[in-house]
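HOLO CASE FILE
Compound: cytidine-5'-monophosphate
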Amino acid sequence: MLLTLALDLPSAKQNLKLVEELASFDIWLKVGFRSYVRDGKAFLQDIKSINPNFKIFLDLKLYDIPNTMADTAEEIASLGVDMFNIHASSGAIAMETVKKRLENYKNPPLVLAVTALTSFDNDSFSKIYGDSIKHKALEFAKMSYEHGLDGVVCSAFESKMIKEATSHDFLTLCPAIRPFGEDSGDQQRVATLEIAKKELVDFPVIGRPIYKDENPKAKVAKILEIINA
Ligand code: C5P
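Model generated. Tokens follow.
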């Protein structure tokens, strides 16, 4: 498991202060839509200059026509980030076009597909996709695997099932992790680190339980101890 910290603090300054505090850990950092729109390329460079071993997951969730997505994927690859994501519902041609275009790069970023946004309940999801979340998430995961993506963003509770239906090497990145059962906030189906481990989650995404802790460095050390046990 590779700990992925969500950098969701309200300013670049606060996020970078946190990153500096955690500079001794070689962890993954998730840069979201809001933060990238506000702080841009310079923010990514600032992160890497604090510790070049930090890996960056740019969480922009692309959804557009295949050619525009592939053009954007190339721009993302040239930023030097390590992973980004697209919506699975953008389709098989978009997946293939994006991956094909990245073949021109020496160390291309990993590409994950978002299956179902966790903000949907089953009813509102079915109105758009005509299917239950669980069934559709599995179908999207299989499609992403068959069309060459590296993994999916999914619920920790779906990780093992997805790997069994695709491959154990097909990556799962799962938000809504509360390592030691902390406050779930607005997240619905939260999983502890123990559950994430049993579910074979590759990237547990953790935000508030780390950056709201009074000692984020000690919290990360404790999380890594469990991950590496
Ligand atoms: O603070 P918390 O640990 O809940 O943060 C989870 C992170 O994962 C946030 O950045 C949130 O936007 C993101 N995320 C999510 N559910 C998804 C996709 C991303 O919670 N389906």
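CASE NOTES: The mean pLDDT is 96. The longest strand covers residues 55-62.
CLOSED: yes
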